[in-house]
Design brief:
The protein is mostly beta strands. The chain contains 2 helices and 23 strands. The protein has a single domain, classed as Glycosyl hydrolase domain, family 43 (Tachylectin-2, Chain A), CATH 2.115.10. Strands 5, 6, 7, 8 and 9 form a 5-stranded antiparallel sheet that branches. A 5-stranded mixed sheet has the order 16-20-19-18-17, with no helix packed on it. Strands 1-2-3-4 form a 4-stranded antiparallel sheet, with no helix packed on it. The chain binds beta-L-arabinofuranose (FUB). The site of beta-L-arabinofuranose has 14 residues, from strand 1 and strand 17.
Length: 362
Protein backbone atom coordinates (compact mmCIF):
# COMPACT_ATOMS: atom_id res chain seq x y z
CA UNK A 1 0.00 0.00 0.00
CA UNK A 2 1.85 3.03 -1.20
CA UNK A 3 1.39 6.42 -2.76
CA UNK A 4 4.21 8.63 -3.87
CA UNK A 5 3.43 11.70 -1.79
CA UNK A 6 3.02 9.56 1.27
CA UNK A 7 6.36 7.80 0.76
CA UNK A 8 8.03 11.22 0.89
CA UNK A 9 6.06 12.28 3.97
CA UNK A 10 6.85 8.96 5.67
CA UNK A 11 10.52 9.25 4.87
CA UNK A 12 10.65 12.70 6.45
CA UNK A 13 8.68 11.46 9.44
CA UNK A 14 11.00 8.48 9.94
CA UNK A 15 14.06 10.72 9.84
CA UNK A 16 12.52 13.15 12.34
CA UNK A 17 10.97 10.58 14.66
CA UNK A 18 12.70 9.52 17.85
CA UNK A 19 10.27 6.62 18.36
CA UNK A 20 11.62 3.10 18.66
CA UNK A 21 10.70 1.29 15.43
CA UNK A 22 10.85 -2.11 17.16
CA UNK A 23 8.40 -1.12 19.90
CA UNK A 24 4.62 -1.37 19.80
CA UNK A 25 4.33 1.13 22.64
CA UNK A 26 3.45 4.69 21.77
CA UNK A 27 5.78 7.33 23.19
CA UNK A 28 5.45 8.32 26.84
CA UNK A 29 6.36 11.72 28.25
CA UNK A 30 9.95 12.10 27.04
CA UNK A 31 11.82 14.42 24.69
CA UNK A 32 10.36 12.72 21.62
CA UNK A 33 6.85 13.55 22.85
CA UNK A 34 7.85 17.18 23.27
CA UNK A 35 9.18 17.24 19.71
CA UNK A 36 5.90 15.87 18.37
CA UNK A 37 3.79 18.20 20.53
CA UNK A 38 5.14 21.32 18.78
CA UNK A 39 3.08 20.14 15.80
CA UNK A 40 -0.05 19.29 17.79
CA UNK A 41 -1.91 22.45 16.89
CA UNK A 42 -1.89 21.38 13.23
CA UNK A 43 -4.42 18.68 14.07
CA UNK A 44 -8.16 19.00 14.56
CA UNK A 45 -8.05 16.43 17.42
CA UNK A 46 -5.46 14.73 19.59
CA UNK A 47 -4.94 10.96 20.05
CA UNK A 48 -7.35 9.42 22.56
CA UNK A 49 -4.55 7.29 24.02
CA UNK A 50 -0.78 7.52 23.67
CA UNK A 51 0.47 4.45 25.58
CA UNK A 52 -0.38 2.01 22.76
CA UNK A 53 -1.02 2.41 19.05
CA UNK A 54 -4.67 2.00 18.03
CA UNK A 55 -6.56 2.18 14.72
CA UNK A 56 -9.87 1.45 12.97
CA UNK A 57 -12.08 2.69 15.84
CA UNK A 58 -15.59 1.21 15.89
CA UNK A 59 -17.44 3.19 18.55
CA UNK A 60 -20.73 2.29 20.26
CA UNK A 61 -22.74 3.60 23.19
CA UNK A 62 -23.49 0.78 25.63
CA UNK A 63 -25.21 1.54 28.97
CA UNK A 64 -24.69 5.27 28.39
CA UNK A 65 -20.89 4.91 28.05
CA UNK A 66 -18.80 5.15 24.87
CA UNK A 67 -16.89 1.96 24.02
CA UNK A 68 -14.29 1.96 21.25
CA UNK A 69 -13.32 -1.29 19.55
CA UNK A 70 -10.04 -0.52 17.73
CA UNK A 71 -7.27 -2.52 16.10
CA UNK A 72 -4.12 -2.65 18.26
CA UNK A 73 -1.22 -1.75 15.98
CA UNK A 74 2.14 -3.36 16.67
CA UNK A 75 5.63 -2.98 15.26
CA UNK A 76 6.52 -6.51 14.21
CA UNK A 77 9.10 -5.46 11.64
CA UNK A 78 7.09 -6.99 8.76
CA UNK A 79 8.03 -5.03 5.60
CA UNK A 80 5.33 -2.80 4.07
CA UNK A 81 3.59 -4.07 0.93
CA UNK A 82 0.31 -3.68 -1.00
CA UNK A 83 -1.19 -6.68 0.83
CA UNK A 84 -0.91 -4.86 4.17
CA UNK A 85 1.39 -7.51 5.69
CA UNK A 86 2.82 -4.74 7.89
CA UNK A 87 -0.55 -4.62 9.72
CA UNK A 88 0.36 -7.71 11.73
CA UNK A 89 -1.77 -7.29 14.86
CA UNK A 90 -2.01 -9.86 17.65
CA UNK A 91 -4.74 -8.70 20.05
CA UNK A 92 -7.48 -6.20 20.82
CA UNK A 93 -7.72 -3.63 23.62
CA UNK A 94 -11.07 -1.98 24.20
CA UNK A 95 -11.21 1.67 25.23
CA UNK A 96 -14.07 3.46 26.97
CA UNK A 97 -15.06 6.89 28.23
CA UNK A 98 -18.10 8.52 29.83
CA UNK A 99 -18.30 11.21 27.18
CA UNK A 100 -16.18 12.75 24.45
CA UNK A 101 -13.43 14.71 26.21
CA UNK A 102 -13.64 12.49 29.31
CA UNK A 103 -10.94 10.21 30.74
CA UNK A 104 -10.23 7.25 28.45
CA UNK A 105 -9.86 3.81 30.05
CA UNK A 106 -7.89 1.01 28.37
CA UNK A 107 -9.48 -2.25 29.55
CA UNK A 108 -6.45 -4.36 28.64
CA UNK A 109 -6.33 -7.39 26.35
CA UNK A 110 -9.89 -8.34 25.36
CA UNK A 111 -8.98 -11.08 22.89
CA UNK A 112 -5.61 -12.50 21.76
CA UNK A 113 -4.95 -14.27 18.48
CA UNK A 114 -3.61 -17.31 20.33
CA UNK A 115 -7.09 -17.82 21.78
CA UNK A 116 -8.79 -17.96 18.36
CA UNK A 117 -8.55 -21.65 17.36
CA UNK A 118 -8.83 -21.11 13.59
CA UNK A 119 -6.69 -17.95 13.29
CA UNK A 120 -3.44 -17.69 11.35
CA UNK A 121 -2.31 -14.06 11.38
CA UNK A 122 -3.33 -10.39 11.24
CA UNK A 123 -6.19 -9.33 13.49
CA UNK A 124 -7.67 -6.42 11.56
CA UNK A 125 -10.49 -3.92 12.15
CA UNK A 126 -13.19 -5.24 14.54
CA UNK A 127 -16.71 -4.19 15.48
CA UNK A 128 -19.12 -5.03 18.31
CA UNK A 129 -22.84 -5.42 18.99
CA UNK A 130 -25.16 -6.12 21.94
CA UNK A 131 -28.04 -8.60 21.77
CA UNK A 132 -29.35 -11.58 23.77
CA UNK A 133 -27.88 -10.02 26.94
CA UNK A 134 -24.44 -10.64 25.40
CA UNK A 135 -21.73 -8.50 23.79
CA UNK A 136 -20.42 -9.78 20.46
CA UNK A 137 -16.99 -8.87 19.08
CA UNK A 138 -16.67 -9.38 15.31
CA UNK A 139 -13.15 -9.57 13.90
CA UNK A 140 -11.39 -10.32 10.60
CA UNK A 141 -8.29 -12.50 10.71
CA UNK A 142 -6.49 -14.70 8.19
CA UNK A 143 -7.17 -18.38 8.70
CA UNK A 144 -4.39 -20.96 8.65
CA UNK A 145 -4.58 -21.02 4.81
CA UNK A 146 -3.93 -17.22 4.83
CA UNK A 147 -7.47 -16.37 3.70
CA UNK A 148 -9.35 -13.61 5.58
CA UNK A 149 -12.61 -14.63 7.25
CA UNK A 150 -14.70 -13.04 9.97
CA UNK A 151 -15.01 -14.47 13.45
CA UNK A 152 -17.14 -13.73 16.48
CA UNK A 153 -16.38 -13.79 20.20
CA UNK A 154 -18.71 -13.21 23.15
CA UNK A 155 -18.63 -11.62 26.59
CA UNK A 156 -21.09 -10.61 29.29
CA UNK A 157 -19.43 -7.18 29.51
CA UNK A 158 -18.74 -4.65 26.74
CA UNK A 159 -15.03 -4.46 27.56
CA UNK A 160 -14.50 -8.25 27.54
CA UNK A 161 -12.56 -10.43 27.89
CA UNK A 162 -14.16 -12.16 24.91
CA UNK A 163 -14.28 -15.88 24.14
CA UNK A 164 -13.94 -16.75 20.45
CA UNK A 165 -16.12 -19.29 18.69
CA UNK A 166 -14.19 -22.33 17.45
CA UNK A 167 -14.90 -21.60 13.76
CA UNK A 168 -15.28 -18.44 11.65
CA UNK A 169 -18.79 -17.29 10.73
CA UNK A 170 -19.95 -19.71 8.02
CA UNK A 171 -20.01 -18.00 4.62
CA UNK A 172 -17.98 -14.99 5.82
CA UNK A 173 -14.95 -13.65 4.00
CA UNK A 174 -12.70 -10.62 3.57
CA UNK A 175 -12.35 -7.90 6.24
CA UNK A 176 -13.76 -4.94 8.16
CA UNK A 177 -17.09 -6.11 9.61
CA UNK A 178 -19.56 -3.41 10.67
CA UNK A 179 -22.64 -4.66 12.53
CA UNK A 180 -25.63 -2.34 12.40
CA UNK A 181 -28.84 -2.67 14.41
CA UNK A 182 -31.90 -1.35 12.60
CA UNK A 183 -34.83 0.20 14.50
CA UNK A 184 -36.88 -3.00 14.10
CA UNK A 185 -34.20 -5.01 15.93
CA UNK A 186 -32.65 -6.67 12.85
CA UNK A 187 -28.86 -6.79 12.70
CA UNK A 188 -26.85 -6.61 9.46
CA UNK A 189 -23.16 -7.13 8.86
CA UNK A 190 -21.49 -4.95 6.20
CA UNK A 191 -18.00 -6.06 5.21
CA UNK A 192 -15.27 -6.35 2.59
CA UNK A 193 -12.05 -4.77 1.44
CA UNK A 194 -10.08 -5.00 -1.81
CA UNK A 195 -6.27 -5.37 -2.22
CA UNK A 196 -4.97 -6.92 1.05
CA UNK A 197 -8.57 -7.44 2.19
CA UNK A 198 -8.89 -10.08 -0.59
CA UNK A 199 -12.43 -9.14 -1.72
CA UNK A 200 -11.26 -9.51 -5.36
CA UNK A 201 -10.96 -13.25 -4.70
CA UNK A 202 -14.71 -13.64 -4.03
CA UNK A 203 -17.25 -13.77 -6.85
CA UNK A 204 -20.82 -14.94 -6.20
CA UNK A 205 -19.60 -15.91 -2.71
CA UNK A 206 -17.16 -18.44 -4.20
CA UNK A 207 -13.42 -18.29 -3.49
CA UNK A 208 -10.94 -18.02 -6.35
CA UNK A 209 -7.35 -17.72 -5.14
CA UNK A 210 -6.45 -16.20 -8.54
CA UNK A 211 -9.21 -13.55 -8.37
CA UNK A 212 -7.93 -10.25 -9.79
CA UNK A 213 -8.59 -6.60 -9.12
CA UNK A 214 -10.76 -4.93 -11.77
CA UNK A 215 -9.32 -3.08 -14.77
CA UNK A 216 -9.98 0.72 -14.87
CA UNK A 217 -12.96 0.43 -17.27
CA UNK A 218 -14.59 -2.51 -15.49
CA UNK A 219 -17.26 -2.04 -12.83
CA UNK A 220 -15.76 -1.66 -9.36
CA UNK A 221 -15.93 -4.51 -6.84
CA UNK A 222 -18.88 -3.98 -4.48
CA UNK A 223 -19.03 -4.20 -0.67
CA UNK A 224 -21.05 -7.01 0.91
CA UNK A 225 -23.80 -7.43 3.47
CA UNK A 226 -25.72 -10.19 5.21
CA UNK A 227 -28.49 -10.14 7.80
CA UNK A 228 -27.44 -11.84 11.03
CA UNK A 229 -29.38 -14.72 12.56
CA UNK A 230 -30.95 -14.35 16.02
CA UNK A 231 -27.91 -16.12 17.55
CA UNK A 232 -25.69 -13.29 16.16
CA UNK A 233 -23.11 -15.92 15.20
CA UNK A 234 -24.30 -16.83 11.71
CA UNK A 235 -25.70 -15.29 8.55
CA UNK A 236 -29.47 -15.57 8.08
CA UNK A 237 -29.20 -15.29 4.29
CA UNK A 238 -26.65 -15.56 1.47
CA UNK A 239 -24.18 -12.67 1.33
CA UNK A 240 -25.34 -9.91 -1.04
CA UNK A 241 -23.52 -7.16 -2.94
CA UNK A 242 -24.30 -3.52 -2.08
CA UNK A 243 -24.85 -1.16 -5.01
CA UNK A 244 -23.27 2.30 -4.75
CA UNK A 245 -24.57 4.60 -7.50
CA UNK A 246 -23.63 8.00 -8.86
CA UNK A 247 -26.24 10.77 -9.07
CA UNK A 248 -27.30 9.47 -12.52
CA UNK A 249 -27.94 5.99 -11.12
CA UNK A 250 -24.84 4.32 -12.57
CA UNK A 251 -22.48 1.95 -10.77
CA UNK A 252 -18.92 3.20 -10.41
CA UNK A 253 -16.04 1.81 -12.42
CA UNK A 254 -12.66 0.91 -10.99
CA UNK A 255 -11.17 4.07 -12.50
CA UNK A 256 -13.56 6.14 -10.32
CA UNK A 257 -11.31 5.44 -7.35
CA UNK A 258 -12.30 8.73 -5.67
CA UNK A 259 -15.77 7.26 -5.15
CA UNK A 260 -15.66 3.48 -5.47
CA UNK A 261 -15.55 1.18 -2.42
CA UNK A 262 -12.20 0.01 -1.06
CA UNK A 263 -12.70 -1.01 2.63
CA UNK A 264 -13.89 0.20 6.08
CA UNK A 265 -17.70 -0.01 5.86
CA UNK A 266 -19.84 1.81 8.40
CA UNK A 267 -23.63 2.11 8.54
CA UNK A 268 -25.69 4.59 10.54
CA UNK A 269 -29.19 5.93 10.32
CA UNK A 270 -30.14 9.62 10.38
CA UNK A 271 -33.70 10.95 10.04
CA UNK A 272 -34.89 7.61 8.67
CA UNK A 273 -32.24 7.36 5.93
CA UNK A 274 -29.44 4.79 5.75
CA UNK A 275 -25.93 6.25 5.49
CA UNK A 276 -23.33 3.83 4.15
CA UNK A 277 -19.80 5.22 4.54
CA UNK A 278 -16.47 3.69 3.56
CA UNK A 279 -12.85 4.31 2.62
CA UNK A 280 -11.78 4.83 -0.99
CA UNK A 281 -8.40 3.32 -0.05
CA UNK A 282 -5.82 4.42 -2.59
CA UNK A 283 -7.42 7.88 -2.78
CA UNK A 284 -7.62 7.97 1.04
CA UNK A 285 -11.07 9.53 1.55
CA UNK A 286 -13.92 8.45 3.78
CA UNK A 287 -17.01 9.01 1.65
CA UNK A 288 -20.72 8.37 2.16
CA UNK A 289 -23.78 7.35 0.21
CA UNK A 290 -27.46 7.48 1.27
CA UNK A 291 -30.28 4.98 0.71
CA UNK A 292 -33.79 4.04 1.82
CA UNK A 293 -33.08 0.44 2.83
CA UNK A 294 -30.28 -1.30 4.76
CA UNK A 295 -29.66 -3.28 1.56
CA UNK A 296 -29.24 -0.16 -0.59
CA UNK A 297 -28.86 0.92 -3.29
CA UNK A 298 -26.95 3.89 -1.91
CA UNK A 299 -26.37 7.09 -3.84
CA UNK A 300 -22.96 8.70 -3.44
CA UNK A 301 -23.11 12.08 -1.69
CA UNK A 302 -19.54 13.21 -1.02
CA UNK A 303 -16.47 13.21 1.20
CA UNK A 304 -17.06 12.83 4.91
CA UNK A 305 -13.40 12.80 6.03
CA UNK A 306 -10.63 14.09 3.75
CA UNK A 307 -7.32 12.15 3.74
CA UNK A 308 -5.65 11.97 7.15
CA UNK A 309 -1.92 11.80 7.84
CA UNK A 310 -1.17 8.17 6.96
CA UNK A 311 -2.18 5.76 4.21
CA UNK A 312 -5.30 4.17 5.67
CA UNK A 313 -8.48 6.02 6.57
CA UNK A 314 -11.08 4.25 8.74
CA UNK A 315 -13.94 5.57 10.84
CA UNK A 316 -17.16 5.09 12.78
CA UNK A 317 -20.06 7.39 13.61
CA UNK A 318 -22.17 7.55 16.78
CA UNK A 319 -24.71 9.85 18.41
CA UNK A 320 -24.21 10.67 22.10
CA UNK A 321 -26.29 13.16 24.10
CA UNK A 322 -27.74 14.74 20.96
CA UNK A 323 -24.39 15.28 19.21
CA UNK A 324 -22.88 13.26 16.38
CA UNK A 325 -19.25 12.16 16.48
CA UNK A 326 -16.75 10.77 13.98
CA UNK A 327 -14.09 8.40 15.31
CA UNK A 328 -11.07 8.00 13.02
CA UNK A 329 -7.31 7.50 13.11
CA UNK A 330 -4.11 9.01 11.77
CA UNK A 331 -0.38 8.56 12.38
CA UNK A 332 0.33 11.72 14.38
CA UNK A 333 2.24 9.89 17.14
CA UNK A 334 4.50 7.66 15.06
CA UNK A 335 4.74 9.02 11.52
CA UNK A 336 4.56 5.37 10.43
CA UNK A 337 1.84 3.84 8.22
CA UNK A 338 1.15 0.86 10.46
CA UNK A 339 1.37 2.56 13.89
CA UNK A 340 -1.79 4.61 14.13
CA UNK A 341 -3.69 6.45 16.87
CA UNK A 342 -7.45 6.83 17.25
CA UNK A 343 -9.17 10.21 17.54
CA UNK A 344 -12.65 11.72 17.69
CA UNK A 345 -14.27 14.90 16.45
CA UNK A 346 -17.81 16.22 16.19
CA UNK A 347 -19.67 15.71 12.91
CA UNK A 348 -22.26 18.15 11.53
CA UNK A 349 -25.19 17.61 9.15
CA UNK A 350 -26.52 20.22 6.78
CA UNK A 351 -30.30 20.87 6.81
CA UNK A 352 -30.67 18.70 3.66
CA UNK A 353 -29.12 15.69 5.42
CA UNK A 354 -25.71 15.92 3.75
CA UNK A 355 -22.64 15.85 6.01
CA UNK A 356 -20.07 18.63 6.28
CA UNK A 357 -16.63 17.43 5.14
CA UNK A 358 -14.11 17.09 7.96
CA UNK A 359 -10.45 18.03 7.46
CA UNK A 360 -8.33 16.48 10.18
CA UNK A 361 -5.36 18.84 9.71
CA UNK A 362 -5.62 22.61 9.78
O1 LIG B 1 -5.98 -2.13 10.28
C1 LIG B 1 -5.81 -2.98 9.17
C2 LIG B 1 -6.59 -2.49 8.00
O2 LIG B 1 -6.18 -1.18 7.65
C3 LIG B 1 -8.07 -2.33 8.24
O3 LIG B 1 -8.76 -3.55 8.28
C4 LIG B 1 -8.40 -1.44 7.12
O4 LIG B 1 -9.67 -0.87 7.19
C5 LIG B 1 -7.29 -0.42 7.22
O5 LIG B 1 -7.55 0.56 8.18
Amino acid sequence: MKRNSFILTSAIAVICSCNDAASDKAPTADSSTVKISTENNKYLSQPLVTHIYTADPSAHVFNGRIYIYPSHDTATGTPENDNGDHFNMMDYHILSMDSVGGKVTDHGVALHIKDIPWAGRQLWAPDAAFANNTYYLYFPVKNKQDVFQIGVATSKTPEGPFTAEKEPIKGSYSIDPCVFQDDNGSYYMYFGGIWGGQLQRWNNNKYDSAGKLRQPDQLAILPRLAKLSADMKSFAEPVKEIKILDSAGNLYKEKNNDQRFFEASWMHKYHGKYYFSYSTGDTHNIVYAIGDSPYGPFTYKGILLAPVKGWTNHHSIIEKDGKWYLFYHDIQLSGKTHLRNVKVTQLFYNPDGTIQTIHSQR
